[in-house]
Amino acid sequence: MARIAALAAFLAFVVVPAARGEGPDGAPAEQAQESFPYEVVVTATKLNVRAGPSTNHAWIFGVARGDRLTVHGREGKWLRIAPPEGCRVWIHADLVEAAPNGEAVRVAKDACNLRAQPGPNADVVGQVGTGVELDVAAHREDWYQVEAPAGVFVWVHGDFVASPETSPGTG
User: Fold this and answer.
1) pLDDT-based confidence at 27, cuts 50/70/90?
2) What's residue 11's pLDDT?
3) For residues 112 and 98, what is the distance between their CA atoms, to the nearest angstrom?
4) What's the half-sphere exposure (Cβ side, CA atoms, 13 Å) at 152?
5) C-alpha–C-alpha distance, residues 161 and 44, integer Å
6) How do beta strands 154-157 and 78-81 pair?
7) Residue 63 exposed, middle or buried by CB count within 10 Å (0-12, 13-18, 19+)
8) CA-to-CA distance for 133 and 155, rounded, in angstroms?
9) At 165, is the pLDDT very low, low, confident or very high (cuts 50, 70, 90)?
10) Backbone dihedral angles phi then psi of residue 100, each to the nearest 5 degrees
C-alpha cells in the first residue's frame, strides 16, 4: 500500500505537470527554450519589482501597465529583469567617495554590494567595482540611494507580463 501511495505522489508531481505542459518548477515547458534577453510588457495595473525571485524578497520599485521590461533570465515563474528607469538601489557610504560634480559618488573599493534597502542585511541585487560613478538620488545616514547601474538585476512575477505582440493596446 505504501508503494502505491509513493507511486501516486510521484506521478502527481512529475507526470501531471508534464501533461499540462509544465516543467518541474511550474513554468510552461516551452520556456525551457527561452533565448535571453527579450522584451515583455506589463499587463497588471501595478507590478512590484523585487530584489529576488519570491515575495519574501524586498520590494524595490513599482512598474505600471504598458511599461516595457527586458528579461535576462528566469527562475520558475519569476523573471530576472534589467532595472527599469528610475529604479534605485543602496550603497554604504564607506564604499564611495564624492564625485567632482557633487551629484554622484564614485566607488572607492572593488566588488561593493548594491542593496535593495539601506542596511547590511538587505538583499544584494548586484555589485560594482572601483571607479564606477553612481548618480545619487538620496542620502540616509550611512547609505546612498543611487540609480541602479548596468549589471544589476531585479525580479518580477511572469504572470503579470506578456509579449509585446500579444499584449492588448501595445501597438
Assistant:
1) low
2) 38
3) 16
4) 32
5) 7
6) antiparallel
7) buried
8) 24
9) confident
10) -55, -30
106-141 pLDDT tens trace: 999 999 999 999 999 999 999 999 999 999 999 999
Q: pTM here?
A: 0.76
First to last CA, the chain: 58
Q: Which three cell numbers stand for residue 57?
A: 524578497
pLDDT tens profile 42-88 = 999 999 999 999 999 999 999 999 999 999 999 999 999 999 999 99
Backbone angles phi, psi at 6, to 5 degrees: -65, -40
The residues pairing with 71 across neighbouring beta strands, listed in sequence order, are 38, 81
Per-residue burial over 13-38, b = 16 or more CB atoms within 10 Å of its CB, e = otherwise: eeeebeeeeeeeeebeeeeeeeeeee
Q: Residue 151's closest CA among 124, 126, 129, 122?
A: 126
Q: Which residue has the cell 504572470?
A: 159
Residue 29 C-alpha cell reads as 515547458
**Residue given cell 549589471 in the structure block:** 151
d(CA 127, CA 41): 27
Three-state DSSP at 20 gives coil
